């Protein structure tokens, strides 16, 4: 891996390079995505099935687009029983973690007849997009569906691409069954996002769309935002390891590669105040890469977006980590909890040498749907909050309103909104 001195210039150049990976940088695809969305919006099933044939090679119609109970049962049988057991354990951890995020309606009454409050309501219908193709990610099914279930969403609809024979990955269907998805449809790409956003004869319209996908899915979610809500526009995976001289170089190297193997746009960065550790980690990265199955992807990822930055001291390293605001941040220092208190920006923070990133991806319980491309400065992980909405509650008696009504009238008149003022005044006419 490249080893560079951490300076203002190297940090700025690194951030600029990372931002180039954002879906917002791929405007050449937007015209095609908008065409697909408009076609599905206008022609509904006809366009959905045509695009599925064009892009996935599968011949679908209203009779086979929905995954049947028999197909789900077959998928469950085809999935390794050991994997089923692991998914059940992970499901319990994920559910337990998100249960602690639940919010409840509240009301506050005063003796003068004022009642204020907040009513919490789960969303009625949520669409979960699950990628297909060569890779299957049943862990993403659990992470996207379970917070919605905990929140009390009325109906969860899942779309996922099928192969040319109309088959969906068995592990994906098994995970959906365990998580409690209500309906599953064979649809992928921008056309699936459009179907969820606007509805077709076969696929119901939803209120919110969540889930990862390729550049077409990301841009489609961006395009339909406003017609429906979305979770975020996710960019490629990224990890930042913050380490001092006490860190185990093999652990640090292995953890960097856990994200570099995702795709060629993935980012893996080590920031340390130890030149010796930097050299050791670089050597371990080379050793691991030589024997790992996704060697070609890892090498391109590290070449383009991999880097080891050597800082003057730990404070400078922490400052750089806060500026980069990585999706995953591992802290491998002598006192990781003390270091963590200085971190302001990160999607998920992993503390200590036995909390490696895959623990969060699969099993620990916190959500692995995280902000990328520096958006951890203002976005949070997917949570129960993403599947509820809040309504303000206001109730005043005449006795409570009378002492303040002229204040409200004055405010309204100052903004030249006389109908607002009248709405208050009319209640105190003689």
Q: Could you write a compact summary of the structure shown?
A:
The chain is of the alpha/beta class and 430 residues long.
Provide a descriptive summary of the structure in words.
Its EC number is 1.1.1.23. It comes from Petralouisia muris. By secondary structure, the protein is α/β, with parallel strands linked by helices. It contains 18 helices and 14 strands. It has 3 domains: 3-22 and 235-364, Nitrogenase molybdenum iron protein domain (Rossmann fold); 25-230, Rossmann fold, CATH 3.40.50.1980; 399-428, no CATH class. The strands form 3 sheets. A 6-stranded parallel beta sheet has the order 1-11-10-9-12-13, with helices on both faces. A 5-stranded parallel beta sheet has the order 6-5-4-7-8, sandwiched between helices. The protein is globular, with a radius of gyration of 25 Å. It starts with a strand and ends in a 5-residue tail after the last helix. The model has no long low-confidence stretch (mean pLDDT 95).
Topology:
Blueprint: E1 3-5, H1 8-19, H2 30-43, H3 45-56, H4 69-78, H5 81-99, E2 106-109, E3 115-122, E4 125-129, H6 138-151, E5 155-160, H7 170-179, E6 183-186, H8 189-198, E7 208-210, H9 215-224, E8 229-230, E9 238-243, H10 249-260, E10 267-272, H11 275-291, H12 295-305, E11 306-310, H13 314-324, E12 328-332, H14 336-340, E13 348-351, H15 357-362, E14 388-395, H16 398-401, H17 405-414, H18 418-425
Parallel strand pairs: 1-11, 4-5, 4-7, 5-6, 7-8, 9-10, 9-12, 10-11, 12-13
Antiparallel strand pairs: 2-3, 3-14
Helix pairs in contact: 2-3, 2-8, 2-9, 4-7, 5-6, 5-7, 6-7, 8-9, 10-11, 17-18
């Amino acid at each position: 891996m490249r080893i560079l001195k951490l300076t203002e210039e190297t940090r700025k150049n690194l951030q600029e390079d990372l931002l180039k990976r954002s879906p917002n940088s791929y405007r050449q695809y937007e015209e095609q995505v908008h065409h697909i969305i408009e076609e599905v919006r206008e022609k509904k099933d006809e366009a959905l099935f045509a695009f599925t044939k064009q892009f996935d090679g599968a011949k679908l119609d209203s009779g086979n687009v929905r995954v049947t109970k028999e197909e789900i049962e077959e998928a469950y049988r085809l999935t390794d029983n050991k994997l089923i057991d692991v998914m059940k354990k992970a499901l319990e951890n994920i559910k337990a973690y998100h249960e602690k995020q639940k919010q409840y309606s509240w009301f506050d009454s005063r003796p003068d007849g004022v009642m204020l409050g907040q009513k919490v309501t789960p969303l009625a219908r949520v669409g979960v997009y699950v990628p297909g193709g060569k890779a299957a990610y049943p862990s993403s099914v659990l992470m996207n569906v379970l917070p919605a279930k905990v929140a009390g969403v009325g109906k969860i609809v899942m779309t996922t691409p099928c192969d040319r024979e109309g088959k969906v990955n068995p592990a994906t269907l098994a995970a959906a069954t365990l998580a409690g998805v209500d309906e599953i449809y064979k649809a992928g790409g921008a056309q699936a996002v459009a179907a969820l956003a606007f509805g077709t004869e076969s696929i119901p319209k939803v209120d919110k769309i969540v889930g990862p996908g390729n550049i077409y899915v990301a841009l489609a979610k961006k395009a339909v935002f406003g017609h429906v809500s979305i979770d975020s526009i996710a960019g490629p995976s990224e990890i930042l390891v913050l380490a001092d001289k006490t860190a185990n170089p093999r652990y640090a190297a292995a953890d960097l590669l856990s994200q570099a193997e995702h795709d060629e746009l993935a980012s893996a960065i080590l920031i340390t105040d130890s030149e010796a550790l930097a050299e050791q980690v670089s050597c371990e990265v080379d050793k691991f890469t030589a024997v790992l199955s996704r060697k070609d992807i890892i090498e391109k990822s590290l070449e383009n977006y991999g880097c080891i930055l050597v800082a003057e001291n730990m404070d400078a390293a922490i400052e750089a980590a806060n500026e980069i605001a990585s999706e995953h941040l591992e802290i491998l220092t002598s006192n990781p909890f003390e270091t963590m208190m200085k971190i302001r920006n990160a999607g998920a923070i992993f503390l200590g040498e036995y909390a490696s990133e895959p623990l969060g991806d699969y099993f620990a319980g916190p959500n692995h749907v995280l902000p990328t491309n520096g958006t951890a400065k203002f976005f949070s992980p997917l949570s129960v909050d993403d599947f509820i909405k809040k309504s303000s509650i206001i109730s005043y008696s005449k006795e409570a309103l009378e002492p303040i009504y002229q204040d409200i009238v004055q405010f309204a008149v100052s903004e030249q909104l006389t109908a607002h003022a009248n709405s208050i005044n009319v209640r105190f006419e003689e």
